Amino acid sequence: MLCHIKNTMPSHGRTVRRGFTLIELLVVIAIIAILAAILFPVFSRAHAKARQATCMSNLRQIGLAATQYANDYNERFPPYQSVDYLVIPECSSSLALYTLGYLALLQPYSRNTQYSQCPDTKPLTSTSACHRRRFLELEGRIGYGMAWPTPGAEYIPTSPVANRNMLAIIEEPASHVGWMDAVPTGTSSRPLYDSYGIYMNHATTLFGANHYPPLGFTGTQPSAWHQAPEPRHIEMVNVTFCDGHTKALPMEKVYGVRCAPADQRVTTPLCRDLALDPNSPAYAELWRMWK
C-alpha cells in the first residue's frame, strides 16, 4: 500500500503528493523477506515441538493403561498382539481368526482410540472397511509399537517364554523400554505401510532373537514383520518405559545405530538386519533397555 506524504512547498496553489520510490519499496520487501526467512523455521519448529508433546502425552497414557492392565492381570503386561476368533461384520459375517493388538486390550482402561494415533505419522490410507474397523476403531493402531519380545511376548502358559511379559522379571523397569514411536521396516510389513498406512503392533529388538532363548527362531532375527523405532519428532524417538515415565531419545540411544528405512537420514544398515551382540560392552546399556 502506498503512503502519501504532503510536501510543505505549495505549487501553483496545490499540495504536491508523492509515493514511495521503487528503491524504498524494494527495501521494505527485502526486510519482510528476511524476517520471514528467520521466523518461518521458528514457527515450524514450534509446531513440531507441539506435535511431539502431544505424542509424548499419548505414550504416557498408553503406559498408564498398560500399568492398570498389569495390576488386574497378575502383574502381566498385555501381549503386543494375540490371535483370537472374532466376528467383525466389516471383515466377515462369520467367526474368523484375527490378530488383536495390545491397544485393543487396553480399551477398557482408556475408552478411546485417539490417544494411540501419533500426530506425526502417515495416516491409514486404506479404503477397506475391514481395515478401518480393525486398525482405527478397535485398536487405533497408528504409529506406536510395544517392545518385543520383552515385555510384549504373548502369554501362553505352556510356552517357554510365558513369563516375558511379567513385570517381576524386568530388573530395571525405569530403564527398560515398553512402548515407542515405531514404523514398519520388514520385508512383509513395509509394503503394507507403503501401500495402506498399516502399522505393526510391536517394536522389534535390535539384538538377535537367538539371545532370547527359546523363541523358536532358527535365524538371528525375524525380519519379515520387523518394525523399528522411528525418530519422527525433530530426529527424536518418544519412548515410554516400563515404569510409566516417557522420554524423547535419539535413535542411537534407543537402537544403537541409525538404520533404514526407519531413519531417513541413512540408507544403510537396514533395521531388519540388525542383530547386535548383547555381550559386547559397547551395547551394555542398550541390552538393559531391551533384555
Task: Work out the strand percent.
Answer: 15-25%
**Principal-axis shape:** globular
Task: Please describe the biggest sheet, giving its number of strands, its sense, and whether it closes into a barrel.
Answer: 6 strands, mixed
Q: Helix-strand pattern, N to C? A: EEHEEHHHEEHEEEEHH
The value of Rg in angstroms is 26 Å
Roughly what percent helix? 25-40%
Q: In terms of structural class, how would the helical and strand content be classed?
A: alpha+beta
Number of beta strands: 10
Distance between the terminal alpha carbons, to the nearest Å? Answer: 66 Å
> Spans with pLDDT under 50 lasting ≥5 residues?
1-6, 216-220
Number of helices: 7
Q: How many structural domains?
A: 1
Q: What is the typical, i.e. mean, pLDDT?
A: 87
Give an overview of the whole structure:
- The protein has 291 residues and is an alpha+beta fold.
- It has one domain.
- 31% of the residues lie in helices and 15% in strands.
- The chain has helices at residues 22-72, 102-105, 107-110, 129-138, 189-196, 251-255, 284-290, and strands at residues 5-6, 17-18, 81-86, 96-101, 144-148, 177-184, 202-204, 227-229, 237-241, 246-249.
- Strands 5, 6, 7, 8, 9 and 10 form a six-stranded mixed beta sheet that branches. Strands 1-2 form a two-stranded antiparallel ribbon.
- Strand 9 and strand 10 form a beta hairpin.
- The radius of gyration is 26 Å and the shape is globular.
- Mean pLDDT is 87; it is low at 1-6 and 216-220.
